[in-house]
Amino acid sequence: MSTENIQAILATRMQLGECPLWHAQEAALYWIDIDGHAVHRFTPADGAHRSWTMPSEPGCIARNAAGGLLVALRSGLALLDTASGKLSDIAPAPYDSQTTRFNDGRCDAAGRLWVGTIYEPRDHPNAALFCVEHGAIRDSGKRATVSNGVAFSPDNKTLYHADTTAHRITAYDFDVGSGATGASRLLKQFSTDKLNDYGGRPDGAAVDSEGAYWCAMYEGGRLLRLSPAGDVLREVLLPVRCPTMMAFGGDDLRTLYITTVSKNRPAAELEQYPLSGCVLSLRVDVPGLPEHAYLA
Question: What percent of the chain is predicted at pLDDT more than 70?
Answer without folding.
Answer: 99
